[in-house]
Specification:
The chain is an alpha+beta fold. It has one domain: Gcn5-related N-acetyltransferase (GNAT) (Aminopeptidase, 3-Layer(aba) Sandwich). The protein has four helices and six strands. It is globular.
Length: 160
């Protein structure tokens, strides 16, 4: 079963029976972050999510309040081609607005830390868009969990 983190909230590994609820919440997650454009292809989205949850190197954890899905995180594990050290990337961590608070995020980070320790992860990374919090709270959360801002990301937008 799932791991109880506080009150009636619990984290569980992804299970196919939760796909529909996960798909809806994942869509809200990318929509709220402004990643969805007018030409959204629902069939492609559905295929992408199915691939995401079926890859063994992706850990998808779901957060429930009772029987309602209220959050999730996606942790992608990978090994670099020049060594055998496992690294992880918090691809996305999302909570419904009613559950967005430091205590819940902290619980999810602790859960991910335990999974990383189990999988012998040497390094874990995330991006500013992966976690949806006030910038000050996000900075405090990341620092509490020993994250440091190491490399900036450079991006060039192209006219397409």
């Amino acid at each position: 079963m799932g791991k109880s983190i506080m009150n009636n909230l619990r984290l569980e590994d992804f299970n196919a029976r939760h796909f529909s609820a996960f798909e809806q919440l994942a869509y809200r997650a990318v929509f709220e972050r402004g990643f969805v454009d007018v030409d959204f292809d629902k069939q492609h989205w559905n295929s992408h999510l199915k691939n995401l949850v079926s890859v063994n190197s992706n850990i998808v954890r779901l957060l429930f309040n009772g029987n309602e899905l209220v959050g999730f995180y996606i942790l992608q594990l990978h090994n670099l081609p020049w060594n055998h050290r496992t690294q992880a990337l918090f691809q996305l961590m999302h909570l419904t607005p009613a559950h967005r608070n430091s205590a819940t995020y902290n619980s999810m980070f602790r859960d991910a830390d335990a999974l990383c320790q189990y999988n012998k992860v040497e390094r874990i990374q995330t991006t500013d868009t992966a976690i949806q919090m006030d910038e000050g709270q996000k900075l405090n959360l990341l620092q509490q969990h020993n994250y440091q801002h190491i490399d900036g990301l450079w991006e060039a937008r192209k006219d397409v």
